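User:
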Amino acid sequence: MDWDAYPNFQAEEFLCKHCGKDGVRPELVSMLQEIRTRLGKPMSISSGYRCTEHPVEANKDKPGEHNDGMAADIICQGGKALDVIHHALDLGVRRIGVHQKGGIMSGRFIHIGIGDLLEARYQKAIWTY
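Assistant: Predicted structure:
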């Protein structure tokens, strides 16, 4: 992947935190770059690609969008979280997870997934954690 096309992100942000592998899809990073450009503020990725052995994926019945490289969690809260969701919806994102409990450093994030745009097995959805 040509990371020069995504000036606000680095490959390391999307690596599996369990094994260090890269599996993020360019379509996702392109979508996130467009959200970031529209937002006009930095965005930090707390989780990108996750291998099947990653503890979160291993606890699922079957691996999900992160394992397919089609999702990322963006650390944000309050108005910034709402702006991220607004821009994502405007760009056609239809898989959004919202985790806004606790402090910003204890896990507030917005899950942005594009699985429904790339694979029929993923459906449009919004959920909370």
